[in-house]
Design goal:
The chain is an all-alpha fold and 393 residues long. It contains 14 helices and no strands. The chain is globular, with a radius of gyration of 23 Å.
């Protein structure tokens, strides 16, 4: 805990900056770093809270004041405070970044009471894909997008800029992939049931069965654990998750960026896996296939022609992602079977390989759009540089 003297010094440093200003205001570098390291703390708390939250809901009945919710709320409180600071002072953001952050925070804060009402009316509503939950992800989506833009536009060139940009992209990937954790936990819950074990407490199973009007049997467990079509998991992962890696590679501009962003997210999930399971919470499948797909995204950028890169990259990334997903399900399941005598507990949700064509088409559209926007931005910067050079004596 900080001493009163250190708190006093911090207040004396910060108070002179608390003045009204417009977005785009010139920001001292020390203030800029404090603001964006504050965002790193906020997103870290939200990541830890949300990761614990899914596991919690596969074990216990929902509770508004559950520890994961409180941890997530601490991150949200910091995010709200930073949004107010940016909005009032204008420091650290341009107008576009500020609007994204404000809209994202606003959508998130509206979604919270709607989600509480939804649970009061509809009961358990464990699925991550419900409308109120999607509003929470959408709000966080815009929030992180604004923070990404603010850091990208304002941070000085160097290693710190690159590393922090990669960290924000890892948080972005975590947010968009978050609803997929329902299937990642669900497939292991079904595997546990098939091996005469359950992760959920009896009160949760009985409540879910009563809500569905079914007995506590495998049919109820399947409806409880995998309530969405099998194709949703791989299609969403390829179209949305891998699009994040494509944009990360474009903006960071270095070979290995997509792999490292995916590796950072998967690494955190891997570290949390034993922490949750050794404390009695349900385990989840970990999306290792994202790292392999991220490597292929990086390899695709060895092709210099943007639109050719998008086409070839989409074909390669989609094929590798689906192949890695199938392999993960088979290989990791076999490894765990040999160790624990149980089947497939470190596998993956059903890959639904017939959906690969649709996933590839969706990724191709977003990849082409990203290349077009990047090409347009590069062209405008080139024209601006020529104008400046011409006008300079």
């Amino acid at each position: 805990m900080k001493s009163p003297a250190s708190l006093k010094r911090a207040a004396e440093w910060a108070l002179p900056y608390w003045t009204r200003g417009q977005a785009g205001r010139e920001t001292p570098q020390d203030l800029f770093r404090v603001l964006y390291f504050g965002w790193l703390v906020a997103f870290t708390l939200k990541l830890l809270g949300s990761a614990w939250d899914v596991s919690w809901h596969f074990k216990w009945l929902r509770d508004d004041l559950a520890p994961p919710h409180l941890l997530n709320s601490a991150g949200t409180a910091i995010a709200v405070a930073l949004t107010v600071i940016h909005g009032y002072t204008g420091y650290g953001v341009d107008k576009a970044a500020l609007r994204l952050i404000q809209w994202g925070t606003g959508i998130f804060l509206v979604a919270v009471p709607l989600d509480l009402i939804n649970h009061r009316v509809n009961g358990l509503d464990i699925t991550s894909w419900s409308p109120s939950h999607i509003m929470l992800y959408l709000g966080t989506f815009f929030m992180i997008a604004g923070v990404l833009r603010g850091w990208f536009m304002g941070a000085p060139p160097g290693r710190e800029r690159t590393v922090v940009l990669g960290a924000f992209f890892a948080f972005f990937l975590e947010n968009v992939h978050f609803p997929e954790q329902h299937q990642e936990y669900g497939i292991l819950s079904i595997g546990a049931w098939d091996n005469h074990a359950t992760y959920a407490e009896p009160i949760l199973l009985e409540f879910a069965a009563h809500q569905m009007g079914q007995p506590v049997d495998r049919g109820m467990m399947t409806a409880f654990s995998l309530p969405v079509p099998d194709f949703l998991y791989p299609v969403y992962a390829v179209v949305v998750g891998l699009s994040v890696l494509v944009v990360a590679r474009l903006l960071i501009g270095r070979f290995g960026a997509a792999t490292l962003v995916a590796g950072a997210y998967v690494g955190v999930r891997t570290l949390l896996w034993p922490l949750l399971t050794f404390t009695g919470f349900p385990p989840s499948a970990v999306p290792f296939f994202l790292v392999v797909a991220g490597l292929v995204v990086d390899l695709a950028f060895l092709v210099r022609m943007p639109y050719v890169r998008a086409v070839l990259g989409t074909v390669g990334v989609t094929a590798v992602a689906y192949g890695a997903l199938v392999a993960q399900s088979a290989i990791m399941g076999g490894v765990y079977s040999a160790i624990k005598g149980q089947k497939g507990l470190l596998g993956a949700p059903p890959p639904a390989t017939s959906s690969a064509v649709w996933a590839g088409l969706g990724l191709l559209v977003l990849w082409l759009a990203a290349e077009w926007l990047a090409d347009r931005r590069h062209g405008s910067q080139t024209i601006e540089a020529r104008v400046i050079a011409t006008a300079t004596p």
